[in-house]
Amino acid sequence: MSNPVLVCVFRGINAYETLAGVLEGLTQCREKLTTNGSLPQTVMALTPEVTFRQAILFFTEADFVTGKTCFTLQEHTHHSLQSLSFSFSVGESWRCRAESLFTYLHTGAQVLCTVLLIKPGVWSRNLARILRNLELEKFTLVGMKHMDLEPAIALGLLPSEVKQDPAALEAHCTYLTSGTALVLCLERPNAVKKLVDLLGPEDPKLAQALGPCLWRAQYGTSTVHNGFYGSKSYQMAVRDMKLFFPEGLCCAKCQTLEEEEV
């Protein structure tokens, strides 16, 4: 109790595994990082339940803020618990919203929606298998429609690096508009990242090298004919839901995703 300790709360996807990996890396680099061969001792919570119990010892709900422009620093000394909060803005304006992370820890991860587009020629041959795999991965189907993509919509689905290559751009747009695509809206906790992880890299050859069970490794043959498009972020999921399901999703249980403006 003679020296102060720093108490931090981190939030992120796969937070426990990621933080454990960081701490393990610091331990392995002990000699490089310090001259005396020692690092400050660290203790981390291993489960949401332990996190909740430890967080309420040092923080109140008012201490937590969310958003890319907001940070909270807590310093616990042997005399008292002192709180210092600060924020900064990028550009002319910024927005910082307080949120009940205690409630989040207590209730668990929210159910979110994402969009999966099965490209022409893939869904007509493999739909039953794909739907079965989605069920095994705990996805719930809350929207489905088949449609012939307009060139403008196809263009909007392509990553920026493809748009910079005229030949690749033409190849992608030609393929996406060559037949009927099947668009699915899916929900589950952490839906966006889970789907991105299942699909794998855009290049099926790279996907095969990383894992033969990745969906683009199984159904894709090239970077153009790679089987699927999936929303890559929560903001893109919101955009895709509005684009493909403007009538809404009456059976979806997930909370409405809000686009964040940076």
From TrEMBL:
<keyword id="KW-0808">Transferase</keyword>
<dbReference type="Pfam" id="PF00334">
    <property type="entry name" value="NDK"/>
</dbReference>
<keyword id="KW-0418">Kinase</keyword>
<dbReference type="InterPro" id="IPR036850">
    <property type="entry name" value="NDK-like_dom_sf"/>
</dbReference>
<protein>
    <submittedName>
        <fullName>NDK7 kinase</fullName>
    </submittedName>
</protein>
<dbReference type="InterPro" id="IPR051766">
    <property type="entry name" value="TXND_domain-containing"/>
</dbReference>
<dbReference type="InterPro" id="IPR034907">
    <property type="entry name" value="NDK-like_dom"/>
</dbReference>
<dbReference type="GO" id="GO:0016301">
    <property type="term" value="F:kinase activity"/>
</dbReference>
<feature type="domain" description="Nucleoside diphosphate kinase-like">
    <location>
        <begin position="111"/>
        <end position="251"/>
    </location>
</feature>
<comment type="similarity">
    <text>Belongs to the NDK family.</text>
</comment>
